[in-house]
Amino acid sequence: MQERRKIEFVGLPLAVYREIAAHLRQVGGVEVGLISQSSQQFDYNQSQIESLWIDFTSSSSNSSQQQVEEILAYYESRYGNRHEIAV
């Protein structure tokens, strides 16, 4: 069974989204991807990335999920509120 989560940090630059994804990929039993911006209107202040997705595979453990929460909390403390989007 996989559990997919979709996380958004409003206005976060592409480079930081990539950093978060790289950090999360180091956690066992976790897969991560970036979702490109879907807005049809160009806004210079808007990130090129809309959000990221996280999959917890059947091999992920409670400690893996705890590590993911700690990583997300770290970036939230540095860059502002994160929003979890229903999938």
Can you characterise this structure?
With about 90 residues, this protein is an alpha+beta fold. Helix content is about 35%, strand content about 30%. It has helices at about 15-25, 60-80, and strands at about 5-10, 30-35, 50-55, 80-85.
Shape: globular
Per CATH, what is the topology? Alpha-Beta Plaits
Q: What count of helical segments does DSSP give? A: 2
Number of domains: 1
Helix content estimate: 25-40%
Biggest pleated sheet: 4 strands, antiparallel
Report how far the terminal alpha carbons are from each other.
15 Å
The CATH class turns out to be Alpha Beta
- The CATH homologous superfamily: Malonyl-CoA ACP transacylase, ACP-binding
Q: Order the strands across the largest sheet as they lie in space.
A: 2-3-1-4
Mean pLDDT: 88
Class from helix and strand fractions: alpha+beta
**Which value, in Å, is the CA radius of gyration?**
13 Å
Strand element count: 4
Which strand-content bin applies to the residues?
25-35%
Reported CATH architecture: 2-Layer Sandwich
Low-confidence stretches: none
**SSE pattern:** EHEEHE
